[in-house]
Amino acid sequence: MAAAATALLCAFMVVLTLRTVVPNARKLFGGRFGRRHRAAGAAHLCLLLAGCALTMRPPPRVAVVVFDILLGLSGTLLTATAASDFRHAHARVKNPASGTLDERAVVTVSEMVEHGFYQLLNLAQILYLHALPATPTPFRRFALACFVAAPWAARGRFPVNSFSDNYAPGHGSPSPTIRHLYRIKKAQYLLYKHCLLHGLNLSVLRRAPALDAVATSPTFRVYWIGLNIAYVQEFFLQTLVRRKYMRQGELVVLQVLLMAATTMAALRILADAVDVFFAILSLTANFLRRHHDVSNTVALAFLAT
Predict the structure, then answer these.
(1) What is the torsional sign of CA 254, 40, 189, 218?
(2) 8 A C-beta contact, residue 230 and residue 258
(3) Quick check: helix, strand or coil at residue 155?
(4) What is the C-alpha to C-alpha distance for residues 276 and 284, in angstroms, rounded to an integer?
(5) Where are the domains of the chain?
(6) What is each CA distance from 239 to 19, 105, 235, 244, in whole angstroms?
(7) Tens digits of per-residue pLDDT, 106-126?
(8) Fewer CB near the last or first residue (10 Å), C or N of the chain?
C-alpha cells in the first residue's frame, strides 16, 4: 500500500508540474503582485518535489530532520505571505461555503489564516515525533506531549471554516461530485485529527520506551509528504483554475488522485503506528468536551506516559 501511495503522489506532482506549472512558471512566480507569496510558493513546491523523491530513497536521519523543519517553516511562511499579500485583494471575498473545490470559489483571507494554524500544528507534530525517541525520562516525554498539544490553546484566535457547510442543504456547490468530495474531506479530517494527530502522538508516547523512530520510517515519510502536499495543493489548484491554466475537470481528477494517495498512506500509518484505543479516546473526549483539545490531550498523555 505504501508503494502504491508513493506512486500516486509522485504521479500527482509530476503531472501537475510538467503539464501546468512549468509551462506557466513565469506568470505564476514572476509577477510583481504578491511577490513574497510567489517566491514562497516556488520554494515550497521545490521542497514538495524533493520530498516525493526522498520517499523513494530516504536519506540519513539528520537530513530527514532538517528537511522536515524546512518544510514546516516553508509551509508556515507560505500561508503567512498569502494572508499578508492578498489581504486587501481578498478582503471582500465571500463564498457560500468554505473550501475551494468549486470552480466559483475564491480563497478567503479567513481560510488563509486558518490554514496557518494547521501548518503550525504540522511543525509542532514533526518536531515532537523526531524528539520523542531521544527523550529518556517519562516526565520529559510527558512535557513533549504537552508541547505538541499547546498550539490548540490558540485555536480560538484563528478562524474556523467548516467542511460541512459545503454539503449542508442549501449551501455549497450544486455539483454532486464536489459535495461528495467534501464529505470525504470531512471524514479525512476526523481521521487526521483523532487518529493521525492526537492518536499517533499518544500512541508513540505510550510505546516510547521501546520506540523506533516513527518519523523516519518509510511508511511515515510517504504519509507526511502526502499530508503536506494536500495542505497546499487545494488552494494552488483552485488558483490555476481561476487563472485559466487548468480546467475544472482536471482539478477534480487531480484532487481524487491526491485524496486516494493520502488516504492509502494514512491507513498504512493507522495499521503500523496508531493504537486504536487512544484514537477512540481522543474522539470520545472531543464529543464529550468540545473545544478543550489541550486539556483533553494532556489528560490522555498522562494516561499514556
Answers:
(1) positive
(2) yes
(3) helix
(4) 12
(5) 2-304
(6) 15, 10, 6, 9
(7) 778 888 888 899 999 999 999
(8) N
